[in-house]
Amino acid sequence: MRRLFSIMILLIVMGTLFCQDKAQQAKKTEVWEPVPPVVTPGENNAPPSDALVLFDGTDLSGWVDKEGNPAKWVLEDGAMTVAEKAGPIYSREKFADCQLHIEFRIPVEDKGEGQGKGNSGVFLQNRYEVQVLDSYENKTYVNGQCGAIYKQHIPLVNACLPPGEWQTYNIFFTAPRFNDDKSLKSPGYITVVHNGVLIHNHVELQGPSVWIGKPKYEYHEMLQPIMLQDHGHPVSYRNIWVRRLE
C-alpha cells in the first residue's frame, strides 16, 4: 500500500514538473510588447476612433479642385454630388497605405447605358481606380463595371444595388514602393468589400488605371490625395473616412 502511494506521489510530481516545463516553453513564444493601441469601433458605418473624417455631410472643406481651390460640388442633404463641369475633387489630406470607407449613390434620373450610366470613380493615390458605375442590370465590359479595379481586375461578384440606394465601399490599400533610383520595388495591392461582400481579395495592381493601353508603373511620392472622379454624371458621396495604415 505504501509502495502504491509512493508511486502515485511520484506520478503527481512528475506531472507537475512536466506541466511547468511546458508552461516555460510556451512563455518563450509569448510577445507582450508593443501593446496595440485601443480603438473604439464605430456603429452603423460610423468612423472608428482612430479614423480621419474626410466628409461628414456638413461641408466640403476637406476637398479641393485640380488647382487647389475649394471644391465646387453640390452639398445637399448630407451628401456631396458631382456638379456639371466642376471636375474631379481631391482630398486635402494625403495618404499611402490606408483603409478607406466611402458611400456612394447612383442617380435614378441617369438614363444612360453601359459606361454612360452613373459613371465616377474612387482613386487611391490619385491614380489607382475602383470604378463607380451603375452595374445593376446594366451591361458593360466587366473590367470596367462597378467595383472593378479599372481595366485590371474584374470583381469576384456583382454586389450592386439599384440606382437611388446608398452603396458602400470598404477599401484596404497597400501602396506600391519604389527604390532610391525610382524603379519599382514592390507593387500595390488592394482589397475591396462592396456592400458587405468581398469583391477583390488582395489583388496586385499592375500600375495606374488607364483607359487606353496597358498599365505601367511610374515613380510617384508615397503620400498622395484620394480623388473622386467627375465623369459627367451626378453621382453622390457621403460618410467618407480613412484610417492610415503606415
How would you characterize the overall build of this protein?
The protein is mainly beta. It has a single domain, classed as Jelly Rolls, CATH 2.60.120.560. It has 1 helix and 15 strands; from the N terminus they run αβββββββββββββββ. It has one helix at 2-27; strands at 52-55, 63-64, 74-76, 79-81, 89-95, 98-105, 120-124, 128-132, 166-174, 177-178, 184-186, 189-194, 197-204, 224-228, 236-244. Strands 1, 3, 4, 6, 9, 12, 13 and 15 form an 8-stranded antiparallel sheet that branches. A 5-stranded antiparallel sheet has the order 2-5-14-7-8, with no helix packed on it. The chain is elongated and about 95 Å long.
Quick synopsis:
The protein is mainly beta. The chain has one helix at residues 2-27; strands at 52-55, 63-64, 74-76, 79-81, 89-95, 98-105, 120-124, 128-132, 166-174, 177-178, 184-186, 189-194, 197-204, 224-228, 236-244.
Tell me the strand percentage band. Answer: 25-35%
First-residue to last-residue Cα separation:
68 Å
CATH architecture heading: Sandwich
CATH top level class name: Mainly Beta
Q: Percent helix among the residues?
A: 10-25%
Gross morphology? elongated
Query: What's the CATH topology name?
Result: Jelly Rolls
- How many DSSP E strands? 15
The ordered H/E elements are: HEEEEEEEEEEEEEEE
Largest sheet: 8 strands, antiparallel
- Given helix and strand content, the structural type is mainly beta
pLDDT below 50 for ≥5 consecutive residues: which ranges? none
Number of domains: 1
Output mean pLDDT: 93
Rg estimate, integer Å: 25 Å
Question: Number of helical runs?
Answer: 1
Tell me the CATH superfamily: Exo-inulinase, domain 1
Assembly type of the chains comes to single chain
